[in-house]
Write a structure and sequence with these properties.
There is one protein chain. By secondary structure, the chain is α/β, with parallel strands linked by helices. The chain folds into four domains: about 80 residues, no CATH class; about 70 residues, no CATH class; about 90 residues, OB fold (Dihydrolipoamide Acetyltransferase, E2P) (Beta Barrel); about 190 residues, no CATH class. Helix content is about 25%, strand content about 35%. The protein has seven helices and 41 strands. It has a 16-stranded mixed beta sheet that branches. The chain has a ten-stranded mixed beta sheet with strand order 19-21-24-27-29-31-34-36-38-39. Strands 1-2-4-3 form a four-stranded antiparallel beta sheet. β1 and β2 form a beta hairpin. The protein starts with a strand and ends with a strand. The relative contact order is 0.05. Pfam families: FapA (PF03961), FapA_N (PF20250).
């Protein structure tokens, strides 16, 4: 381009545009000059379009006035290195670096940015890896673009955990679910350990001190102190008291059977006998009952606590407000119309037995059967597991079951095709009824709160006599309480919807070995029935229908 020259300075940092107006043939276009700069390789640095236009305007003016004695010399380009800025969040827990991508210039080293951050008050939590990742992004960005990334993180304080309660004796139900080890690799399913009974003054529970927590820090290096955990008060159950020499130790005040449930340790006064038969008579006891023998035909055992039968129960009636544990098994007979059973087990808690046949079982908790359950009627408020809890491989067939949780066994059904019915409707309908009544109450309170709010708004728009101001304040306080109640009920409504969803997810049948024909599952009007044999399988309730899928 005649009359126009481009040049770098000696350090190749700046680009100079030199225009001789006397050598021009026509007026210059800033766009053409910029294009020529790029074609000659000067675009490796930043080129200022404004500086180019200013130089062209001056040269064109001199060209028009025929003044060829002057030259226009203008710096139109420069090599720009990476620009670094820092931003710190309002809570001082995060720090960010804002990098402007270089135009022909250099990228800083990660260590340089780390030092710059320290000079800007960012002293802790700086991650060299995060800085390097940010520099990698800048290296690929368009020149002049801004790239932002987090380079430092504070550490929030972690408050100490509350005091913990550690039982010093096991529950009877936990004992029977963990057979005793014979060797390192074998367990004896017949040896369930000694029945746990404690003497008066025995240590049954210890409260451990709360945690101290862990201090945190912000990016400025300030320490954020943590809080020591709370001391959770000890809830003493019957038969227990605090130790005289240690306020964190619970001891038994009587000889009996310990039980830890819902953060309460209690020791039930225990009646111990060698068996229940016509010689001993029926047993009705206010505490727990321990039978070191069998419960024979037509005998009755009732207890306010737990009932543990370290033997066999045959055609008996066993009832407990707590758990029922029968280590050997139970057996009864069905009437001709299959509506009555000669052996009944009722528990407010969970039930464990080694095997069962011809039983009528009602329990509020889980049902655990060690080997086999057959020809029984079961109503349980929890799950049913037939086999060892960690890998159920027991047999389940020819039963009428109403369960609130999953039913898990090894072999489900029998080769003969005997009918096994599992119904999950009862618990679901209870949840639904409770939810419907709660929703109706919620609608009423929601409507009342809206009407009351409108009335208060009308009062606020009027001049209220001084004599009525106290009444208005009372009405506003009542509206506030009503609003708090409504907020609480809204959250409970969400929890009930979640509980309903969780119940449907828990409604499932799992066969770890084989699923035979004649097995049916039900949830209200949704049914599924196996018409053939299946290998390991799971039947679950999903999207308002039953779904079969093999287990692999």
């Amino acid at each position: 381009m005649q009359g126009v020259k481009f040049s770098f300075d000696t350090n190749r940092e700046n680009v100079t545009l030199t225009i001789s107006p006397g050598e021009l043939e026509q007026e210059l276009s800033a766009e053409e000059v910029h294009k020529a700069l790029c074609e000659q390789g000067f675009d490796e640095v930043y080129l200022s379009e404004n500086a180019i236009k200013t130089a062209c305007d001056k040269a064109n003016h001199l060209f028009k006035t025929r003044d060829s004695s002057q030259q226009v010399v203008e710096q139109v380009g420069e090599r720009r290195h990476t620009e670094v800025e820092f931003r710190i969040s309002e809570d001082n827990m995060s720090a960010y670096a804002i990098l402007t991508a270089p135009h022909g210039g250099q990228l800083p080293r990660a260590e340089q940015i780390q030092m710059m951050a320290k000079n800007n008050g960012i002293r802790r939590g700086v991650g060299i890896k995060r800085i390097r990742a940010l520099l990698d992004r800048v290296a690929e960005a368009e020149p002049g673009s801004h790239v932002e990334g987090e380079i430092a993180k504070g550490l929030p304080p972690r408050d100490g955990h509350s005091s913990k309660q550690v039982p010093l004796v096991p529950n009877a139900l936990e004992r029977v679910l963990k057979p005793q080890a014979k060797t390192d690799k074998k367990v004896d399913l017949r040896n369930l350990g000694e029945i746990v009974c404690v003497k008066a003054g025995a240590e049954v529970l210890r409260r451990e001190a709360p945690g101290k927590g862990r201090h945190g820090f912000d990016v400025h290096g300030n320490v954020l102190p943590s809080k020591i955990g709370d001391w959770v008060p000890l809830n003493l159950g019957s038969g227990t008291a605090l130790s005289d020499h240690d306020e964190n130790l619970v001891v038994s005040t009587i000889a009996g059977m310990p039980k830890y449930n819902n953060l309460v340790m209690q020791v039930d006064d225990t009646f111990i006998c060698q068996g229940v038969n016509v010689g001993t008579g029926h047993i009705t006891y206010e505490g727990s009952v321990l039978v070191n023998g069998d419960v024979t035909e037509n005998m009755i055992v009732k207890a306010k606590g737990d009932v543990t039968v370290n033997g066999f129960a045959e055609s008996a009636h066993i009832q407990a407000d707590g758990d029922v544990i029968i280590t050997e098994g139970a057996m009864g007979k069905q009437s001709d119309n299959h509506n009555e059973y000669t052996c009944t087990i009722q528990a407010g808690g969970s039930v464990y037995l080694q095997h069962g046949q011809g039983l009528d079982i009602i329990c509020g908790g889980n049902l655990n059967v060690g080997r086999q359950l057959a020809h029984c009627r079961v109503i349980t408020g929890g799950q049913i597991v037939v086999g060892q809890p960690d890998n159920p491989q027991g047999n389940l067939f020819a039963c009428e079951i109403s369960s609130h949780g999953p039913v898990i066994a090894g072999t489900v059904g029998a080769v003969s095709g005997s009918t096994l019915r599992i119904d999950f409707s009862m618990g679901f309908n209870q949840l639904q009824a409770r939810k419907d009544s709660f929703e109706e109450l919620l609608r009423q309170i929601r409507g009342n709160a809206e009407r009351h709010k409108q009335k208060i708004d009308n009062i606020n728009n009027r001049v209220v006599p001084k004599s009525l101001l106290s009444k208005v304040d009372e009405a506003k306080e009542m509206l506030k309480n009503e609003s708090n109640l409504l907020t609480w009920m809204e959250s409970k409504s969400v929890e009930m919807s979640q509980a309903k969803q969780q119940y449907q997810e828990a409604a499932k049948l799992i066969a770890n070995k084989k699923l035979y024909s004649g097995v049916s599952v039900k949830l209200n009007n949704r049914n599924w029935r196996s018409e053939r044999e299946y290998d390991r399988a799971q039947v679950s309730y999903d999207m308002h229908q039953w779904k079969y899928e093999p287990l692999v």
